[in-house]
């Protein structure tokens, strides 16, 4: 609409034409704003989908790989316990992981840089941060466990008697390190439940929902735990 037309209508006191012209102006502005909002919403949805797809892949990878390790470790611990119940003096069961002992944090760090806080509900943001913090913490525990295996178990595998005292009991330091492994298994199971909960929350990332923070139950641990 040209401003000259409004002035012309004003001079002629053509109020109907002026009203029509103003309606056209308002509609044009409104439509322009709506189109801009729709474009912004579409772009935000695309960003959210890309970020959440990355998290989905990372969480599913943790669940897939973690399940294999947990199954193997649970089976190994059960075999060790069965051998001990038969009175056998076998080397402590241990688990070793090829490559890094801790999970990479690149997914979480990249998400923070991408403006994740603007894309999801605050509670989901907090639960994701809590999950990756716990993943780091469990990784640190496993590093301590692995360090003991490298320095105190592997050098004595040819002499299983070195792991036992004169009464045939597993020495405290080895019993304690196996307890670390048992706790790692328990903690990983709990964290797996948190990962599944987060995957479900991604279906409605902007909506509030029950917390996905891991619950380890009895924080007191067991006798002999590190």
Task: Please name the defining characteristics of this protein.
single chain; mainly alpha; rod-shaped; 226 residues; 0% strand; 5 helices
Task: Summarize, please.
This protein has a domain at 47-201.
Strand and helix layout:
Blueprint: H1 3-11, H2 15-85, H3 106-113, H4 122-153, H5 172-201
Describe the structure.
This protein is mostly helical and 226 residues long. It has a domain at 47-201. Helix content is 66%, strand content 0%. Helix 2 (15-85) packs antiparallel against helix 5 and helix 4 (122-153) packs antiparallel against helix 5 (172-201). Mean pLDDT is 81; it is low at 219-226.
Helix content: 55-70%
Provide a count of the helices.
5
* Strand-residue proportion: under 5%
Helix-strand category: mainly alpha
**Low-confidence blocks of residues:** 219-226
Radius of gyration over all CA atoms, rounded: 31 Å
Shape: rod-shaped
- N-C termini distance: 78 Å
Q: Report the average pLDDT across residues.
A: 81
Number of strands: 0
Element-by-element helix/strand order: HHHHH
Reported for the largest beta sheet, the result is: none
């Amino acid at each position: 609409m040209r401003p000259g037309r409004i002035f012309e209508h004003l001079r002629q006191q053509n109020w109907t034409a002026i009203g029509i012209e103003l309606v056209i102006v308002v509609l044009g502005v409104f439509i322009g704003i709506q189109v801009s909002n729709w474009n912004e919403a579409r772009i935000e949805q695309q960003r959210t989908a890309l970020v959440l797809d990355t998290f989905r892949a990372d969480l599913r990878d943790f669940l897939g790989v973690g399940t294999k390790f947990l199954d193997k470790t649970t089976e190994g611990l059960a075999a060790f316990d069965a051998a001990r119940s038969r009175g056998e003096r076998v080397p402590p069961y241990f688990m070793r992981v090829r490559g890094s002992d801790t999970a990479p944090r690149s997914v979480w760090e990249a998400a923070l840089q991408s403006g994740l806080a603007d894309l999801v509900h605050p509670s989901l943001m907090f639960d994701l941060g809590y999950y990756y913090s716990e993943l780091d913490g469990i990784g640190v525990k496993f590093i301590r466990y692995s360090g003991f295996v490298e320095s105190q178990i592997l050098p004595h595998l040819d002499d299983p008697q070195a792991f036992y005292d004169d009464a045939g009991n597993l020495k405290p330091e080895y019993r304690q390190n196996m307890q670390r492994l048992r706790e790692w298994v328990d903690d990983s199971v709990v964290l797996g439940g948190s990962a599944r909960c987060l995957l479900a929350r991604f279906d409605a990332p902007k909506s509030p929902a029950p917390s996905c923070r891991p619950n380890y139950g009895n924080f007191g641990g067991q006798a002999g735990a590190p």
